[in-house]
Amino acid sequence: MKRKNLIRYLESNGCEFLREGANHTVYVNRKGKKASTVPRHREIDEYLVMKICKDLDIPKP
């Protein structure tokens, strides 16, 4: 999945940008009090996308 599509999906499901790291971006789901990192790669593996969604308590795309 493309990184920009993943970020759009996260934001449409209530997740918010928290901060930029050196090699990643941190997103947080304030409703579920969960956080996860999104790497700065153009293409993100499907297994990693599922893990990020699981970490944030949102449905998998």
Give an overview in words:
This protein has two helices and three strands, in the order αβββα. The chain is an alpha+beta fold and 61 residues long. A three-stranded antiparallel beta sheet has the order 1-2-3, with helices on one face. β2 and β3 (34-39) form a beta hairpin. The chain is globular, with a radius of gyration of 10 Å. The mean pLDDT is 96.
Largest sheet: 3 strands, antiparallel
Shape: globular
The CA-CA distance between the termini, in Å, is 10 Å
Q: What is the number of beta strands?
A: 3
Which class do the helix and strand fractions yield? alpha+beta
N-to-C SSE series? HEEEH
Helix content: 25-40%
Question: In percent, how much strand structure appears in the residues?
Answer: 25-35%
Parts with pLDDT < 50 across at least 5 consecutive residues: none
Q: Enumerate how many helices there are, as a single number.
A: 2
Gyration radius, in Å: 10 Å
Please state the oligomeric state of the protein chains shown. single chain
Average the pLDDT over all residues and give the rounded result: 96
Question: Which strand order do you get reading across the main beta sheet?
Answer: 1-2-3
